[in-house]
């Protein structure tokens, strides 16, 4: 079985799909998958579907939606609905639990690959880190549960998941920068910054990548666009670290040319701060 939520919802097996089509059963399945292998209280499912004003029939209607989902799994797995109720989508005290194998769920694979990639990056194994993190990021086909209506319960979890995705993308780019793949990350960073214009870390990564690719003017333009947006929209200046990175690019500071395998972006910015403090 193949279950995908890192993009549109997909429930498939051997080329056959059994993804529910009705909006509310899809919302129930989405919330169960966001908390796979954990109990999801019936009260949480009710709030997800109807907010603070559920109908009197909510408990019965929720049971009907769960039965519809069990039928989807039964059709996909070629087993009786009763077996799905015992082994897959289980009724537990107070709610329901959806059991999902780690190899059949894209969110689990993402979490495993991202975790392994972070460990490799921390250990200085940038080749493995880049490979693992690239695979993790490639599992995403768009926003999580892109075609499922998110309610008050799923919304915060989806927001946290998107933040995890962005952090993983940043770590992936960091690993590739340490390998010297500066030109290779330019397109990815440009697209990311179009979506996250005020993200200082992404802008710093793009500034370094452009500078190390011989595009000093473009690197400085990234800083000026970020500063203009922050001042206009937030009334704030970029951080001291970003200002120091701009100054380092203006003066062609040799610290920017440190061998990429030896120095990541965080260490580079820390070095610039320390260097400035010593100069005072």
Task: Describe this protein's structure.
InterPro entries: AfsR-DnrI-RedD_regulator, BTAD, OmpR/PhoB-type_DNA-bd, Sig_transdc_resp-reg_C-effctor, TPR-like_helical_dom_sf, WH-like_DNA-bd_sf. Belongs to the AfsR/DnrI/RedD regulatory family. Keywords: DNA-binding, Transcription, Transcription regulation. It comes from Micromonospora rifamycinica. Residues 1-100 bind DNA. By secondary structure, the protein is mainly α. It has two domains: 2-101, Winged helix-like DNA-binding domain superfamily/Winged helix DNA-binding domain (Arc Repressor Mutant, subunit A), CATH 1.10.10.10; 181-280, Tetratricopeptide repeat domain (Serine Threonine Protein Phosphatase 5, Tetratricopeptide repeat), CATH 1.25.40. Helices cover 61% and strands 7% of the residues. The chain contains twelve helices and six strands. It has helices spanning 23-34, 42-50, 58-77, 81-87, 106-122, 126-138, 154-178, 186-195, 200-212, 216-234, 240-250, 265-279; strands spanning 2-4, 10-13, 16-17, 39-41, 89-92, 95-98. The strands form two sheets. It has a three-stranded antiparallel β-sheet, with helices on one face. A three-stranded antiparallel β-sheet has the order 4-6-5. Strand 2 (10-13) and strand 3 form a beta hairpin. The longest helix has 25 residues, at 154-178. The protein is elongated, with a radius of gyration of 23 Å.
């Amino acid at each position: 079985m193949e279950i995908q939520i890192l993009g549109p919802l997909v429930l498939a097996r051997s080329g056959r799909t059994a993804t529910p089509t009705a909006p509310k059963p899809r919302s129930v399945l989405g919330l169960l998958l966001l908390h796979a292998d954990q109990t999801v209280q019936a009260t949480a499912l009710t709030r997800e579907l109807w907010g603070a004003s559920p109908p009197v029939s909510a408990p019965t209607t929720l049971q009907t939606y769960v039965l519809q989902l069990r039928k989807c799994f039964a059709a996909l797995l070629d087993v009786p609905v009763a077996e799905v109720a015992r082994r897959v989508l289980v009724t537990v005290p107070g709610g329901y639990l959806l059991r999902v194998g780690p190899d059949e769920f894209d969110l689990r694979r993402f979490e495993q690959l991202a975790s392994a990639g972070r460990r490799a990056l921390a250990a200085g194994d940038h080749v493995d880190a880049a490979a693992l993190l690239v695979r993790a990021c490639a599992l995403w086909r768009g926003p999580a549960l892109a075609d499922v209506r998110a309610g008050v319960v799923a919304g915060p979890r989806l927001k946290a998941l998107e933040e995890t995705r962005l952090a993983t993308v940043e770590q992936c780019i960091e690993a590739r920068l340490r390998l010297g793949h500066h030109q290779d990350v330019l397109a990815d960073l440009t697209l990311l910054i179009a979506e996250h214009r005020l993200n200082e870390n992404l802008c710093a990564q793009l500034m370094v990548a452009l500078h190390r690719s011989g595009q000093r003017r473009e690197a400085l333009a990234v800083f000026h666009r970020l500063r203009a947006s922050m001042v206009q929209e937030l009334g704030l200046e970029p951080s001291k670290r970003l200002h120091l990175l701009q100054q380092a690019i203006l003066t062609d500071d040799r610290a920017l040319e440190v061998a990429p395998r030896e120095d990541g972006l965080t260490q580079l910015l820390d070095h610039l701060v320390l260097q400035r403090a010593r100069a005072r």
